[in-house]
């Protein structure tokens, strides 16, 4: 199965990695109308996600060096909302 065939079958995608240099995968998910959870520590966030925080299906979580527990709680609550 190809990546994009798999992607359209997702109900939700989450990319909570501490740092992604470009963050293409969250952007690809949104392009395929897959609700996406991502965080503020990726380069494309400055260009796309921060400008379009209210893009339908886009959940941007503010991430710093000291808020791991808060990030986990926000990811969990967002997943519960979609479930």
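Q: What amino acid sequence fits the structure above?
A:
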């Amino acid at each position: 199965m190809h990546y994009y065939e798999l992607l359209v079958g997702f109900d939700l995608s989450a990319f909570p990695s501490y740092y992604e240099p470009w963050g293409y995968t969250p952007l690809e998910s949104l392009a395929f109308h897959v609700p996406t959870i991502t965080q503020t520590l990726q380069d494309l966030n400055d260009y796309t996600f921060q400008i379009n925080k209210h893009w339908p299906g886009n959940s941007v979580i503010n991430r710093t060096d000291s808020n791991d527990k808060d990030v986990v709680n926000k990811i969990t609550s967002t997943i519960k909302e979609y479930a």
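Q: And what stands out in the fold?
A: The first helix runs from residue 3 to 7.
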